[in-house]
Design brief:
Calcium-transporting ATPase, cytoplasmic transduction domain A; 251 residues; 7 helices; seven-stranded antiparallel sheet; elongated; alpha+beta
Length: 251
């Protein structure tokens, strides 16, 4: 149930208690508690599912340590590790190739080149002047092995990789483009308001939140109409009727 519809129930519960209608207030209170409990368990199960999927999708690398080939998380790579590459692997760090057999990687993310770039461990390149696409003895992080196999020594990880440097530059430009502190504060408050209204999330969640806000507005409008027909001479029965009309809007 969206935040706006829950708010309608809370208002109805408060008004019920205010008119000393404890039975109706208790029923609405039970509905709110049930909604909170069900929502908590649904969110908990969804979070567990997401964490399981993230664990399954976490990038791994085949590393030769102590002469044994083992699979570790990409986050655990350190400079000096020897990484084994084969077709389909995603390179998890910048590697200086030690061996290569018909090796090629897809570097479109870095260079924009649509064709795979052939790699050769024996290639000698002046890295200070050669562009990224011409460094055939380096396999870059986030690229994909399209053919062949090879091994390489980790020379850079995380933000020290070439893709990490690009990400840092983009983040720095984005932060500069955000403007002064006033604009950042305004965007922060706007995000907080949207988050409170449930307007942050997937497109489906946002649409459902908009629908909930529409129903909330309709509930308030119907309550106002009921009170207006009584010329705002609101007694207990009119108040209860207005509450019932507002709550009836909730699916």
């Amino acid at each position: 149930m969206s935040n706006s519809l829950t708010l309608v129930l809370v208002i109805a519960m408060v008004l019920s208690y205010a008119t000393l209608d404890f039975i109706e207030g208790g029923v609405i209170n039970a509905v709110i508690i049930l909604n909170i409990v069900v929502g908590f368990f649904q969110d908990y199960q969804a979070e567990q599912t997401i964490q399981s999927l993230q664990a399954m999708a976490a990038p791994v690398s085949k590393v030769i340590r102590d002469g044994t080939l083992s699979t570790i998380k990409a986050d655990d790579l350190v400079p000096g590790d020897i990484v084994h590459l084969s077709v389909g692997d995603i390179v998890s760090a910048d590697l200086r190739l030690a061996t290569s057999t018909n090796l090629a990687t897809d570097e479109a993310l870095l260079t924009g080149e649509s064709k795979p770039c052939s790699k050769n461990a024996e290639s000698i390149v002046n890295e200070s002047s050669a562009p990224l696409g011409d460094r055939h003895n380096i396999a870059y992080s986030s690229t994909t092995v399209t053919r062949g196999r090879g091994t390489g020594v980790v020379v850079a990880t995380g933000m020290s990789t070439e893709i990490g440097k690009i990400a840092f530059l983009l983040r720095d430009k984005k932060q500069t483009a955000q403007g002064n502190w006033f604009m950042r504060a305004y965007k922060g408050v706007l995000y907080a308001v949207k988050n409170a209204l449930g307007l942050v999330g997937t497109p489906l969640q946002v649409k459902l939140s908009y629908f909930g806000l529409l129903l909330f507005g309709l509930a308030i409008l119907l309550a106002i109409i009921v009170f207006s027909t009584a010329v705002w001479d609101i007694d207990g029965e009119t108040l209860i009727y207005g509450i019932c009309v507002a709550v009836a809007v909730i699916p």
